[in-house]
Amino acid sequence: METGPEESLRQTVAAPLRATGEPQRVLASVLGPPQAQVSRRRSAATSWSLHDADILAAHHGLPAPDLLAGTRHAGEPGAHR
Q: Which one, of 72, 74, 13, lies nearest residue 42 by Cα?
């Protein structure tokens, strides 16, 4: 089954969190919105923005194109350091 770009980004954003075990509250502090908004983005109730992806890529030490390339690239711990 093919996923659309929003679902792909949602899954990709989740990959580094799973790889690092980072709690959602840390993600909220990095992005700035309340944790509830981050939760809605992670559950696909609202969409991530490209600005969010850029901030998350920097936070995880990833080149932004790798974060946008999908879960395989974004979820490989230490592959970008």
A: 13
**What pLDDT sits at residue 2?**
57
Give the burial string for 44-74 (b: 16+ CB within 10 Å, else e).
eeeebeeebbebbbebbebeeebbbeebebb
Average pLDDT over residues 22-44: 88
Q: For the chain, what's the residue count? A: 81
Residue 81 has which token pair? 């350091």
**Could you give the 3-state DSSP secondary structure of residue 69?**
coil
d(CA 79, CA 73): 8
Which amino acid is residue 57, in one-letter code?
A
